[in-house]
Design brief:
The chain is α/β, with parallel strands linked by helices. The protein has a single domain (3-329), classed as TIM Barrel. Helices cover 40% and strands 17% of the residues. It contains 14 helices and 12 strands. The strands form 3 sheets. It has an 8-stranded parallel barrel, surrounded by 7 helices. The longest helix has 21 residues, at 3-23.
């Protein structure tokens, strides 16, 4: 990178970091009894507004994939979701399509596993979290059927957020159909008008342009978007889409933070602390990460509780570490690596 380009990048990151710092507020204090007195133990993780939804979300949230979406791991999933809420997580992300194949269960057969596992906890703890799910169908009828199943799986009568799942680059020429009377957006509007969902959103990890087109066309409340330390090195979501989401006052939820743990491969590119702090130092509302074991959840919450805003130079240094491995860490984007269709 030339000196001029690096200076320009530093100025851009300064603006992004300033926007993130402005949004953060201190979380509540954990109070414990000590020697007959109530004293502060640890500050909970910082909070940020989830766009215009009215919800203040912790900067780290639970992505209900990994163990939570794996058939046969129901008890571990139950423990993970409960532990997350116990430790102060107040946003859970799932989807009708989430379900991991096993040696005996196909990917399609596994769909709904995540929602069902989350639903076992929502049966008694629904009012403690902001609950988000998604439709991977693009039609009115198909999406309404998925919503009905999602509500049943999650054991609730409403979602706080319902999103169009995984918008892909190839869909850019078909967006009109999504806004037609028989399209997914009309289903979302109908569901919101009937109180089945409170907020509407979009998600994607392939292409910033399709997300930008959707956000500029409709006032979605939230976006779930793939962002990690290697983002700038290929078709950058941070540069090409994030400013639009900020301008639109959308809730912004970051995903693919450790690139499904690839960020730790090849001897360790960066640590989980660097991976999380890089993204949280940008103007996102929160980040979601799938969990294999409760110890990972507890480590991530500790990082979030101790988070301090990174400077532009610190962000640049992490980007430099990721650069030699960017193809490995951007496998989920169109044209990079192998990313099979999920449905």
């Amino acid at each position: 990178m030339s000196f001029q380009n690096r200076r320009s990048r530093r100025e851009f990151l300064k603006k992004m970091a300033a926007a993130a710092a402005l949004a953060s507020v201190a979380g509540p204090i954990d109070l414990v009894a000590s020697k007959g007195k109530t004293v502060a133990k640890n500050a909970a993780m910082p909070l940020r507004p989830l766009g215009r939804t009215g919800h203040m979300v912790g900067i780290y949230s639970l992505g209900a994939q990994a163990s939570v979406e794996t058939p046969g791991k129901e008890e571990l999933a139950f423990d993970i979701v409960n532990r997350a809420i116990d430790l102060g997580i107040n946003y859970i992300d799932t989807a009708a399509a989430y379900g991991r194949s096993t040696d005996t269960i196909s990917r399609r057969e596994a769909m709904g596993t995540s929602e069902r596992n989350v639903g076992r906890v929502m049966k008694t703890r629904r009012n403690e979290v902001f609950l988000a799910s998604k439709t991977h169908d693009r039609s009115y009828d198909g999406s309404m059927r998925l919503l009905e199943q999602s509500l049943k799986n999650l054991q609730t009568d409403h979602l706080d957020l319902w999103q169009v799942h995984n918008l892909k680059a190839r869909e850019k020429d078909n967006l009109d159909a999504y806004f037609a009377d028989d399209g997914v957006v009309k289903a979302m509007e109908k569901a919101k008008s009937e109180g089945m969902v409170k907020n509407l959103g979009i998600t994607g990890h392939e292409d910033p342009e399709v997300l930008k087109m959707m956000a500029e066309r409709y006032d979605f409340d939230n976006v779930l978007v793939a962002i990690n330390a290697a983002d700038k090195h290929y078709n950058s979501m941070i540069e090409k889409f994030l400013p639009t989401a900020v301008e639109k006052e959308m809730g912004i939820v970051g995903m693919k933070i450790p690139a499904r743990d690839r960020i730790f491969d090849k001897g360790g590119i960066i640590t989980m602390k660097e991976a999380m702090e890089y993204v949280i130092s940008l103007p996102v509302s929160t980040v979601v990460i799938g969990i294999d074991e409760i110890a990972e959840l507890e480590e991530n919450i500790k990082i979030a509780r101790e988070f301090t805003q990174l400077s532009a130079d610190e962000l640049l240094a992490i980007e430099d570490k990721a650069k030699p491995h960017y193809e490995h860490l951007q496998f989920f984007k169109d044209g990079i690596g192998q990313w099979p269709s999920e449905w």
